[in-house]
Specification:
This protein folds into 3 domains: 8-175, Rossmann fold, CATH 3.40.50; 183-428, 3-Layer(aba) Sandwich (Rossmann fold), CATH 3.40.50; 442-671, Orthogonal Bundle (Sec63 N-terminal domain-like fold). It has 28 helices and 19 strands. A hairpin with a 2-residue loop joins strand 9 (183-189) and strand 10. The two termini are 23 Å apart. By secondary structure, the protein is α/β, with parallel strands linked by helices. It is globular and about 75 Å long. The longest helix is centred in the C-terminal third of the chain and has 23 residues, at 559-581. The strands form 4 sheets. The chain has an 8-stranded mixed beta sheet with strand order 4-3-5-2-6-7-1-8, with helices on both faces. Strands 10-9-19-16-13-15-14 form a 7-stranded mixed beta sheet, sandwiched between helices. The protein has a two-stranded antiparallel sheet with strand order 11-12.
């Protein structure tokens, strides 16, 4: 079905698909795994059945919908929580959460599903969302074949054996280590560029694995322009000449990348502030000639008209950068502006995009070269060396098949932060194995209890966690499930054994409210959700999804919101008391009302730019939180336990919030 010959690993996987055998494919980023997925889809549709394509993020789901829609038209639908288009189509693009939820609601709608594709299945070990992938794989009907696509991982055989075990059918493992477009690494150290690691060790590292603590003369600091410079540690301390270093300048490196003919470039940095600083710094370098500038601005203006964002201040600022062949991309941008940047980059007219690592996940925008601003990144704690798999994901965006003879990866190295052995392992070491992050939500426990009642142990024994764990670890994990069920029984979510309905009215309400079920269900039982007016309901739902930044500025809220927050905190305190008594962690998340003024103005019909001024968060963040609030409104509206008045209120609130820039469905339609 493709006009080009397949690589051996693609042929092996495709042969298995055509024989109706499930497949687990582990291959480097950029190797061509999408081709295999397209064959599975074609096989399903040609047989008169359906196919489901799951993806870890909404941006990737949207991209896949556009790609498949261009080929199959109305045969394609999408369900992401934000968007519902053509939900009865034979090919459905879904986020993994929506697919998992749909399986709990009733698998009969997928009775004719021939293939389900799990893209980026190594997401199983994502700390926050990995358990969703595990549940989705567990609940997939045994009649449906599975195509799992993963980055290179060392335990692909183990994961395939687990899938084989729980579904009772063979799973073909296809592993590929060769990358069609090879990667070439270079290193900026002491503001010099090294093309091989031997010279880097002898000159950049001064022949040692790491400068010793006793002679370390420098600390890293940044000034407003974003460049690094070194500062002496102690007054009067003068380092020996052999230990003096130079700062790695970003503009110096980019000049060398451009001089080598290795543009376009993806430049990865790990904070939004740093991303924007670098973009403005690179804009001063004159990377685009007059003809390119003319084409870029014409295309940019055309796209802004299509997405109706030409009047936005952020679009005006981006236009200045685009005129110089530069753009930036991070989660704080308007989603439509991110889309414009991605479309422009795909034309190869943009020379440099400075971006956070989210651009590396799935979005199919390869460049000739990739730069990593630093090898350290922050997750939950202090900055630490990135993982091998994270480097592979970002480096894999370099080198376009059919266009580049190689992909060029430039790493900015600080010897006082990263030892030489650590650097060597980062480039040549094995990727980390994928491990289970199994941790059932209360809603999942209730859904399982509704199906299996007391027989939850057999279900747990099928999990990847059980497959990978020792006996002691298995006991601890199952004990947590039992403690959660005990809490749900104590709080009245579960009816006594022998009752016709296994879940109470409160339990039936909770099963559809993933992530916020305990808190909202307690409010539901007390009748407080029905009592709230439209604005206060919107403020409460937004407060639940909002994740305030640590050490953010203080926010003043109205007296009415303070009273609502006090009621909410009383209920939350009771939940936390019971969770602590049963040793259930992490504790249920509580509401944060800092955005209450913004959502009140938005519900009242204010323009987006006025609301952003009140919010003290980036445009893209605010839209994300509004869209998450819309999802909660939908869950309340669709719950069978919701009262008619709350259902109507939720429906009205949904329409008030889901408008203009927040309306993801309208945004996607405009991009078709």
């Amino acid at each position: 079905m493709h006009p080009f010959p397949y690589d051996p690993f693609q042929t092996q996987a495709i042969d298995s698909i055509r024989r109706g055998v499930s497949v687990f494919v582990a291959a480097p980023t950029g190797a061509g795994k999408t081709v295999i997925a397209e064959v599975a889809v074609e096989e399903a549709l040609n047989s008169g059945g359906m196919a489901i394509y799951t993806a870890p993020i909404k941006a990737l789901s949207n991209q896949k919908f556009r790609d498949f829609h261009a080929k199959y038209g109305e045969k394609v639908g999408i369900l992401t929580g934000d968007v519902t288009l053509n939900p009865e189509a034979p090919l459905l693009i879904m986020t993994t959460e929506i697919y998992r939820n749909s399986l709990f609601e009733g698998g009969e709608r997928f009775a004719t599903c021939r293939w389900v594709i799990f893209d980026e299945v190594h997401y199983l070990d994502d700390p926050e969302r990995g358990t969703v992938w595990e549940e989705a794989l567990l609940l997939t009907p045994r009649e449906t074949e599975i195509l799992a696509l993963s980055a290179t991982i060392p335990n692909a055989v183990q994961l395939a054996a687990w899938i084989e075990k729980i579904h009772g059918r063979p799973v073909q493992v296809v592993q590929e280590s060769h990358r069609p477009v090879p990667l070439r690494f270079a290193f900026q150290c002491q503001d010099e560029l090294y093309l091989d690691m031997n010279r880097l060790k002898s000159e950049g590292y001064r022949g040692v694995d790491r400068p010793s603590a006793g002679v370390r003369p420098f600390q890293m600091r940044r000034h407003r322009g974003g460049r690094h410079f070194f500062k002496k540690r102690g007054a009067g301390f003068i380092p020996a000449p052999e230990h003096r270093g130079k700062p790695n300048r970003a503009d110096t490196l980019l000049k060398k990348v451009a001089g080598a003919g290795n543009l376009p470039c993806l430049y990865f940095a790990f904070s939004r502030k740093r991303v924007e600083e670098l973009a403005w710094e690179f804009a001063a370098m004159g990377l685009a000639d007059a003809e390119t500038q003319k084409k870029l601005l014409a295309r940019f203006d055309e796209l802004c008209r299509r997405y109706e964002i030409g009047h936005e201040r952020s679009a005006g600022a981006m236009r200045e950068l685009v005129a110089q062949g530069v753009a930036f991309h991070h989660a704080g941008l308007l989603p439509t502006l991110k889309e414009v940047v991605e479309v422009l980059f795909s034309t190869r007219l943009i020379k440099v995009i400075v971006t956070t690592e989210t651009f590396a996940l799935g979005v199919n925008m390869p460049a000739r070269s990739v730069v990593l601003d630093t090898l350290l990144k922050r997750s939950d704690g202090p900055r630490a060396l990135m993982r091998v798999r994270e480097l592979s994901q970002m480096a894999g965006r370099s080198g376009r098949r059919g266009l580049d003879e190689a992909g060029f990866v430039y790493l900015r190295v600080n010897p006082w932060e990263t030892t030489y052995p650590e650097l060597n392992n980062l480039i040549y070491g094995k990727p980390e194995q994928v491990s289970s992050r199994f941790n059932l939500t209360y809603a999942t426990v209730l859904n399982l209890y509704k199906s299996f009642q007391q027989e939850l142990l057999p279900f747990y024994q099928k999990t990847l966690h059980a497959h990978q764990s020792t006996t002691i670890q298995q006991r601890e994990a199952y004990s947590l499930i039992e403690r959660k069920l005990k809490l749900l029984r104590f709080l009245g979510y579960v009816n006594p054994p022998g009752t016709a309905e296994r879940l109470s009215a409160k339990g039936m309400f909770a099963v559809q409210i993933y992530g916020y079920e305990l808190f909202l269900s307690e409010l539901f039982e007390m009748g407080l959700l029905d009592e709230l007016n439209l604005v206060d309901l919107g403020a409460l739902l937004l407060a639940l999804v909002y994740e305030p930044r640590r050490f953010g500025p203080p926010v003043h809220v109205s007296r009415r919101v303070k009273e609502l927050a006090e009621k909410a905190n009383e209920i939350l305190a009771r939940i936390h008391k019971e969770e602590r008594s049963l040793r259930i962690y992490p504790l249920t998340k509580g509401p944060a009302f800092q955005l209450s003024a913004a959502v009140e103005r938005w519900i009242g019909g204010a323009t987006f730019d006025k609301v952003v001024e009140l919010a003290n968060v980036a445009e893209g963040e605010l839209i994300r939180y509004f869209r998450m609030t819309v999802q909660l409104c939908r869950a309340l509206e669709q719950s069978r336990a919701t009262s008619p008045s709350l259902r109507e209120k939720s429906r009205t609130l949904l329409h008030r919030i889901n408008r203009d820039q927040v309306d993801a469905e309208a945004e996607l339609r405009r991009s078709l």
